[in-house]
Write a structure and sequence with these properties.
- By secondary structure, the protein is of the alpha/beta class.
- It has a single domain, classed as Spore Coat Polysaccharide Biosynthesis Protein SpsA, Chain A (Alpha-Beta Complex), CATH 3.90.550.10.
- The chain is 36% helix and 17% strand.
- It contains eight helices and seven strands; from the N terminus they run βαβαβαβαβαβααβα.
- Strands 3-2-1-4-6-5-7 form a seven-stranded mixed sheet, with helices on both faces.
- Helix 2 links the parallel strand 2 and strand 3.
- Helix 5 packs parallel to helix 8 and helix 7 packs parallel to helix 8.
- The longest helix is centred in the middle third of the chain and has 17 residues.
- The protein is globular and about 50 Å long.
- It starts with a strand and ends in a 10-residue tail after the last helix.
- The model has no long low-confidence stretch (mean pLDDT 94).
- The structure holds guanosine-5'-triphosphate and magnesium ion.
- The site of guanosine-5'-triphosphate has 18 residues, from strand 1, strand 2 and helix 3.
Length: 235
């Protein structure tokens, strides 16, 4: 099989040494033209682990996943970017599949935790995080999407063309970057493709996504994206 000559695999890390140790052999770094890590200031050996394997590490001057998304786009030169977070949640087998969706014409490719055949990691039977995620996704579809329903507007496991990410001119610094990207792509009627993914448990370390602050940040994004929104469905 040919290497993905025009695609960069971007690893997003903030103290993910446990996940990296567990997943490394399954991450297809050699299949991509480049693999880079954007690191938010890890102190648990993540940086050393990556450096030992020859992975260039990009630093960010301000913390946050949103900043990390843009740092990667600014510092790379390939046509396509696949964002992967090696904390255990994301199945490395889907990395190349996301890139394939871009090659098939999608302008945003998302690994969905809520499509038919997907599995969401939450174990609590009430699944509060999943419900909030799905509610935010429903609102975004309702307000901004004129195309086929997007089942997971929030998952960070996704791929885009580099110029498209830059064109969206995103502003979010922290977690809801994905929500802003999805909303802006829907507003532009870009083709969005999803694949059903199986989400696993965190491999170790600590979650950086505290439910309440992150939930609040998503609502803020929704409100800032709202002006000019059309009620596209059933309006
Ligand atoms: N580069 C960078 N990566 C980050 C930053 N914050 C979080 N990450 C990474 O983004 C990924 C997702 O963060 P998580 O804390 O796992 O968020 P989550 O998946 O919603 O939460 P869990 O269900 O607890 O795993 C992980 O790989 C983190 O290391 C940051 O500021 N900079
Ligand atoms: Mg995670």
């Amino acid at each position: 099989m040919q290497q993905r000559r025009d695609s960069t695999l971007v690893l997003l890390t903030l103290n993910e040494i446990d996940g990296l140790r567990l997943l490394w052999d399954d991450i297809p770094v050699d299949r991509f033209a480049r693999t880079v890590a954007v690191d938010g200031g890890s102190t648990d050996g993540t940086r050393e682990f990556l450096a030992q394997r020859g992975i260039p590490i990009l630093d960010q001057s301000i913390p946050g996943r949103g900043v990390a998304f843009r740092v990667a786009a600014d510092a790379t030169d390939t046509d396509r970017l696949v964002y992967y977070s090696p904390d255990g949640n994301e199945d490395p087998a889907d990395i190349e599949r996301l890139d394939d969706l871009l090659l098939g014409g999608a302008r945003l490719a998302i690994a969905s935790r809520f499509a038919r055949g997907s599995v969401n990691e939450e174990q609590d039977s009430f699944r509060p995080r999943a419900r909030v995620n799905q509610a935010l996704t429903w609102i975004a579809n309702r307000l901004f999407n004129g195309g086929p329903y997007v089942t997971d507007t929030i998952n960070g496991f996704r791929a885009m063309r580099r110029v498209d990410l830059l064109e969206l001119d995103t502003s979010v610094k922290r977690f809801p970057i994905e929500y802003q990207i999805s909303i802006r792509a829907m507003r532009r009627s870009w083709p969005i493709a999803e694949l059903a993914t199986v989400e696993n448990q965190r491999a170790g370390g600590e979650s950086k996504a505290l439910s309440w602050p992150v939930g609040k940040d998503h609502i803020k994004v929704l409100l800032t994206e709202l002006p000019g929104a059309r009620l596209l469905r059933g309006a």
